[in-house]
Amino acid sequence: MMKLNQFARITADPATQYRELAAIGLPADPAADFFATIQATYAKLFPVASSPQAIADAQAAIAVDDYDTLATWLQTPQHTMTRREFYNIGLQLLGFEAFTDFQLTAPLTFMAQTKLPVVDRDLIHTADFLQAIYLLLTTRTKHLVTLLDDLANRGFFKDYHDGYLFFNGKSQNVFDARQLVRECVWIESDLDTDGDGQRDMLEATIFRPKETDAGIKMPALFTANPYFHGTNDVDAVTHDPDPKLAVKTESHTKADVTYHPAPQPDLPHRTATGEGKAEVYADENGIYSLNDYFLGRGFVTVYSAGVGTRGSDGVRSTGGVSETASAVAVIEWLTGARRAFTTRTGTTETKAWWCNGKVAMTGKSYLGTLAIAAATSGVAGLKTVISEAAISSWYDYYRENGLVVAPGGYQGEDADVLAVDTFSRQKAAGDMLKLRGKWSQTLDAIGQAQDRTTGDYNAWWDERNYRNNLKNIRCDVVSVHGLNDWNVKPANVIRFWNGLRDLPIQKKLFLHQGQHVYLNNVLSLDFTDMMNLWLSYELLGVDNDAPAQLPNVTVQDNVEPETWHTYADFGHSAHAHKTRQYDLLGDFTGERASFADNATGTFKARHQTSDLFEAEIIKPASLYRDARLWLTQAPASDTRVLEGVPHVHLRLWIDAPTGILSVRLVDLGPAKRFGTVADVIDGAGYQLGYDYKTDKIVEFKPAAETASKLITFGHVNLQNPKNAYEIQQITPGEAFTVDFDLQPTHYVLPAERQLALVIHGADMAQTQRPTAVVNYHIDRASSSISLPFRVNENG
Amino acid sequence: MMKLNQFARITADPATQYRELAAIGLPADPAADFFATIQATYAKLFPVASSPQAIADAQAAIAVDDYDTLATWLQTPQHTMTRREFYNIGLQLLGFEAFTDFQLTAPLTFMAQTKLPVVDRDLIHTADFLQAIYLLLTTRTKHLVTLLDDLANRGFFKDYHDGYLFFNGKSQNVFDARQLVRECVWIESDLDTDGDGQRDMLEATIFRPKETDAGIKMPALFTANPYFHGTNDVDAVTHDPDPKLAVKTESHTKADVTYHPAPQPDLPHRTATGEGKAEVYADENGIYSLNDYFLGRGFVTVYSAGVGTRGSDGVRSTGGVSETASAVAVIEWLTGARRAFTTRTGTTETKAWWCNGKVAMTGKSYLGTLAIAAATSGVAGLKTVISEAAISSWYDYYRENGLVVAPGGYQGEDADVLAVDTFSRQKAAGDMLKLRGKWSQTLDAIGQAQDRTTGDYNAWWDERNYRNNLKNIRCDVVSVHGLNDWNVKPANVIRFWNGLRDLPIQKKLFLHQGQHVYLNNVLSLDFTDMMNLWLSYELLGVDNDAPAQLPNVTVQDNVEPETWHTYADFGHSAHAHKTRQYDLLGDFTGERASFADNATGTFKARHQTSDLFEAEIIKPASLYRDARLWLTQAPASDTRVLEGVPHVHLRLWIDAPTGILSVRLVDLGPAKRFGTVADVIDGAGYQLGYDYKTDKIVEFKPAAETASKLITFGHVNLQNPKNAYEIQQITPGEAFTVDFDLQPTHYVLPAERQLALVIHGADMAQTQRPTAVVNYHIDRASSSISLPFRVNENG
């Protein structure tokens, strides 16, 4: 049974409803005749039909009950309309099928199961019908979007040419997404990252609805996308996970590792000889369906790849201040605070004359990261960011507690690899003739600064820690992250969220059950519509109370399909949380206290892959059983909800001067858990506009039974028992303690399932792969794990 | 190393080349100044740039050698241009990158490796340059299409508004695919399949470039697509593979099983009250990227789902004559030979006034099947079909030699299941109110007629054997099939091809290494461009000699990546073939002659799936080792190329009155063979028009090493030792012979690899699953397999 949860629907008073119905050309007079209103309304709800006969045919396809079609039912004047009649028709308009999806005898039962709203009584007065129609138009369809959106996708607004139209607080699809002006401009930055003595010019690609040419000013959805102009092959520069861990000799202080900005050189401005319109057509296509969805709703979409990408000047810095400045420069141009030119080297200036001065940033991963980066600049005109699966500190992407770690699935990647990957300027060989030396130096410097030898935090990483600058944020923030994202791990979003808590801005958090994916095409949540409410409020000044309408925290359940919980905050002690500490001797039990980390040997002998290792290390009976401690709790008698940041305190000794420690918290017990990738429900069902692009609709569903599943994990270099820059030498055989956090989680552990704790050494998927076998002994009596729980699941 | 094989490029004489260059607005005068011609040409090849400065910037991105960009190189008059200079620039225009894809010192080496054509000398005269540019424009890019197509995708023809434009024999992308008129019409058929006394009205959806409104007449690409308006859930009607095989008691003659058409009732025509334009907008989207690609090239695309689908009248018949008649009716309307109306029940007639009277059919699977079906009607106006993975006889889809078999991956599917699947009329509940009884009777009749009890051929299946009517075909035929398609198996295409051989039509055959997939987005073949040549010839009357230009048979190699062989014919004794017969006692060796078919027991005990069974049954060491004979040949010392239809002759006895026999021919030996699914090379790299849709680009690549791979297989009911309708009772313990064909194949077996023959009973993925264990004894000395080989691989 499908569940179409909905959070973006506003409850409007009747007068507002009538006004909005009238604005979209539907009957709206509560004093008008009841049946005439019904007839006139149903004549309008089949926009594909442009003649009375075609409308009658469309109505004949709808069953009202077992005897009448809508066409025959409308032939006899009706004085009342039962809810059953109304919703039999309504469900078919929403895309559901009588006889299969629902029964004509029980539409209300189906609507309740599907979480669709209904009016509370049969329809007797015209006002009853109008309000029921208003509610139905704002109800979600089987096609992800609301009924009014779905009608618009079939041409409901094709003859509307009167500027913006808002319905239920959201901008409607009245512009023509097919008729885009596609153009490039070059923005003059304050940077000279390629050292040629000239300001780096940054290409930006603009897709704007043609209606802007007629004078309508629109806001911009800007996606800073380093991948926009292509990526390079990185096989040759990807690192081998090192077989030896370094003995660290140098400890650092907070001051040592603090970034201090270098003074910017004073660069000459380009001479401008006049102003003109764009001279270059944008031949790249948009890459995010949510952006595309908003084109027909009166939002210009803008992409810019930044320094060092094809068509722009400069070199890449993998999240450095030059990349933040690149994104900020685009916003400054959009809001009139910076110059741009029609060509990369010419002197004709060009303005964003079509922009209403308000900008939102969107994007996932590196793209969402740059949205956070730009937000921390406090740049004027940036009203909100919707950042998904974003990095909030690059140290939390490529390093962890003094260890080199890999983004999940990309063992051997590092900052220098990503710099090569995104240096698409390399694709323009003409650019490269004079740039090869500079780029080679730049890359060497990144390789040096990222310091794969110690894995420690330093000033270079500190430059890339956007959380240092959260206090500068002036825009509202929407953060979205997958609870199973082991590429950009959840610490990035939760540490960011915690840093925002006390800032005087609006902030919203979405946590879904996906890995490193977008959220807008998941059927069970009206994320697209929520963002319409949000962006209409932020960028178009619609008075829709979006900050109060949308929950602060929306979390997808990991057990009940298509279920989303809303909370006031996440993992915060003030909000219905408690933390319990469990020792590892009685609370968790297991046979042993020692293990020998020979994971690399087994991994190589068995020709394992990272994926296979990750599956194997959490199996009750595992290839790696001798390379780990396997500790379990008794099954719980009640459902428990973990939420927040688990903390590990371990006392141990090892027989070597170096060691990696990994800890995994595991959900143990046979169960059909969600698959790692959402199922495709409809390959092209999410329509992004009238006669326009489509995207697939997906949903997370229970997959094949598994014995266990990773809840969360963490890794530490044992030479960094306190933090990522202070070092403590290890004396083999001598006990010491380490304290570190696991990745944040929200995890429903059903009754009868067990928590298991896996303590092991190197993580073949994430850490270096030392070949020397190290023996570990855990003093379980002096070790513990603290687990945070939500006390009242729906608190 | 990528290989961009090309078959659709025509060698044109210089005068034609100059004329065509002039037609697209490029310099074309061989008497003009050499350097001025070069300058003027390179100014035109950056259509995204609309000003001299923007063009100069684009030229600056191209390296001519290690010192000059195209911009600087063009600043000094040149009297010659070396091939190295020309192709350094050329490769960058084709989308390749200097320094990574190729070296500026050796562009010609790269072009040869990539199979790109080059002129044979440095450029001295203007004519040399013009001819080199012409060749380059018709050369394939990294983006699958030719350079001129790629330029068109960036706006090269955006200001061209002068009707069709042909270049190198192919229609160019000069129409606006974004500006489609989308409309529905209802075609009046001669059928009354739902028995309501009225002619079944058949909905057709039309996407036509807006230029037709201005009077340009275009041909139609018509796809008869039963899935177009959605499918139904079939879980409830899918059959369980039967645990018992029936003892057949009734044998049949050819006459018994011959279909005789029923007389068509004489039905009243609808009264027409006048003529009008469409009244219904088409809200379904096109489903085939090749169709979409041709919109901008001046082809209308038409989809119709046929009887029993949503928006149409009638009921489904799973390939019966009513479905052929549905497809033919659409062609008749397109060519002016049949009436259609603007609405399903109204009286306003409407004509295909925009159609030039020429139609091609396209589509894969059921869609391609209906293309074959329509072709066998001989309907006028249908000039060609491009049918991919098509069924040529439904018995060869759901049955085999007296056995019920499943399409690969769809165990339990049958004709009745597919009828339910495609009966999308069910989605219109208003339609269903009066139709439920009729549909239920129809479905019962299909269930009865398909006869899952005996699995024998009968008159009902004979109605669905399009090969009975090949002599009626008047159109040219392109057939495409995957050599690994175990859903619609290759016998469908090869038996069809063999039936076409002596007909006075043009026919082309493509065999690729995919399963049940389209071919147009595979990078190593210019199938899209080949079809442009073909359709320009067939539907637009272009004198491009397409039948001679395109190879008769094009086959993808299964060992060498990105390699396509061309042949005069397939598996035909007249063309460099020989067949060798191998006995199963000396030529093939193995330890045993007997096995007990307990496959169903093992399958169920091990909770196997069809996929797992198929992998397991061909493993050298297998779960099913006791349920099969495993016979092998010695490794071959040379590469051998199997091509054609292997034939099995077995003498055996079994200890039961019923039995299934399966035979698999296997390629044995560790090797990295192609994956079953092509790798995605570029997720959106195949651009279908200017500012228009994209599709992914794919390629078949060697995947992880496997021990063996299925070459081909076949199944027989042992009660049908001769054919699918004559029965012979089995006396347990008494020997008899069976003769049957395996699926056709083209398979390169490299030296040192072995052929293995697996003889077993039930096939869990394809046949019924009997639970009684049957013992088989093969008289190996009296048994043999005949294998057809291509003598000269490139013959």
TrEMBL record, chains A, B:
The active site is at S365, D485, H516. Keywords: Aminopeptidase, Cytoplasm, Hydrolase, Protease, Serine protease. Its main location: cytoplasm. It comes from the Bacteria. GO terms for cellular component: cytoplasm. It is found in: Cytoplasm. It catalyses: Hydrolyzes Xaa-Pro-|- bonds to release unblocked, N-terminal dipeptides from substrates including Ala-Pro-|-p-nitroanilide and (sequentially) Tyr-Pro-|-Phe-Pro-|-Gly-Pro-|-Ile. GO terms for biological process: proteolysis. The keyword Cytoplasm applies. Residues 2-156 form the X-Prolyl dipeptidyl aminopeptidase PepX N-terminal domain. Residues 251-274 are annotated as: Disordered. Its EC number is 3.4.14.11. SUPFAM superfamilies: alpha/beta-Hydrolases (SSF53474), Galactose-binding domain-like (SSF49785), X-Prolyl dipeptidyl aminopeptidase PepX, N-terminal domain (SSF81761). GO terms for molecular function: aminopeptidase activity; dipeptidyl-peptidase activity; serine-type peptidase activity. Residues 532-786 form the Xaa-Pro dipeptidyl-peptidase C-terminal domain. It holds the Pfam family Peptidase_S15. The keyword Hydrolase applies. Homodimer. Belongs to the peptidase S15 family. Removes N-terminal dipeptides sequentially from polypeptides having unsubstituted N-termini provided that the penultimate residue is proline. This is Xaa-Pro dipeptidyl-peptidase. It comes from Lacticaseibacillus nasuensis JCM 17158. The lineage of its organism: Bacteria, Bacillati, Bacillota, Bacilli, Lactobacillales.
